[in-house]
Design brief:
This protein is α/β, with parallel strands linked by helices. Helices cover 43% and strands 13% of the residues. The chain has a seven-stranded mixed beta sheet with strand order 3-2-1-4-5-7-6, with helices on both faces. Bound molecules: S-adenosylmethionine.
């Protein structure tokens, strides 16, 4: 049976808890202890989620004016902290709109479904699928307004971007996690074009290979989004003291597809010996003219 979400008197709660917020939810997510306290770890988590919400809320508010209820898909949802808190703070008081959580771990999906049911959060759906399969899944609508991915592992952020492009998302809010794909390529190819330059020092040590791999991946992601018609901002999610994976990429659809971004993207892939990633990861970024012509000639034999 659904329970009516309740809120405790705010004066007994930590100041981080907002008026009207479901205390039951915060306890279920172990953000609040049973006696209504916040520990250091949950304070950090809540701070991250609020920081993200500050970017997401205005994006969601813009959408209903365009005649449709807002939809949001969260990739690599985990325990769905982000989805639940956004629902509680934004969707709960509305009549329509829906949040979809995409998560590969079945037990987390089941837990989230049960929690949403208990709280009466009726417009939340949890799908036990990978981010890569989400675009083709019939449980999701043809269009999604906002795509989020908070620390979705490895290439799941790339899959979330591909999903957002397919679903014509108006905005994507991404906090990438560790990334191994580009680092593995750097190790394998040794970025041939750059290997004799001092720049090769940037990835000589394994730790640096991993870091520059992540950095390069995020740069490529931003260029790809710009090439696909999004304006992109990159800031910090929270201070360095809270998390090492704190790059926040916010992309908003403008429709202006930047050819220069596509050209830079392909140039970077070429310089770093990453050309083999182009077709899978960046299929919608057009090759610059001479390169496209050379490819056509090559294909024609
Ligand atoms: C580090 S956790 C982050 C969870 C949540 N977003 C958060 O910040 O609390 C990453 C989650 O992504 C899920 N995941 C990893 N790869 C995925 C994929 N390709 N598609 C969907 N979920 C994925 C993992 O099972 C895990 O629950």
């Amino acid at each position: 049976m659904k329970k009516k979400p309740h809120s405790a008197p705010t004066e007994t709660l930590p100041p981080e808890v907002r008026p009207g917020q479901s205390i039951e939810l915060l306890k279920e997510l172990h953000i609040l202890t049973r006696d209504g306290k916040l520990n250091q770890d949950s304070r950090r988590k809540l701070k991250q989620v609020y920081h993200l919400f500050q970017f997401i809320e205005p994006l969601l508010r813009e959408l209903p004016q365009q005649g449709r209820a807002a939809t949001l898909a969260d990739h690599g949802a985990g325990k769905s902290y982000l989805g639940f808190i956004i629902y509680d703070l934004f969707f709960k008081s509305l009549e329509e709109g829906r949040i979809y959580g995409v998560e590969t771990r079945a037990e987390l999906v089941e837990r989230s479904k049960a929690l949403a049911e208990r709280l009466g959060f009726g417009r939340m759906s949890f799908l036990n699928i990978s981010a890569a399969d989400a675009a083709a899944d019939e449980a999701l609508p043809e269009r999604i307004d906002v795509v989020t991915a908070l620390h979705a592992c490895d290439t799941a952020t790339d899959d979330a971007i591909a999903f957002g492009l397919e679903k014509q998302a108006r905005a994507m809010v991404l906090v990438p996690c560790c990334q191994a794909e580009v680092a593995a390529q750097l190790r394998g190819q040794k970025a041939l074009a750059l290997s004799r330059t001092p720049l090769a020092e940037l990835w000589r040590h394994p730790l640096h290979t991993r870091e520059i791999g992540s950095q390069l991946t995020n740069v490529l992601r931003c260029l790809y989004l710009e090439a696909c018609g999004y304006s992109v901002s990159v800031t910090e999610l929270v201070g360095w003291e809270h998390s090492m994976k704190n790059e926040l990429i916010v992309a908003r659809y403008t429709g202006q597809k930047k050819r220069s971004a596509a050209a830079r993207l392909h140039a970077l892939l070429g310089q770093f010996g990453l050309g083999s990633l182009a077709a899978e990861r960046y299929p919608l970024a057009p090759l610059p003219e001479p390169a496209a012509a050379a490819e056509t000639e090559e294909a024609a034999g």
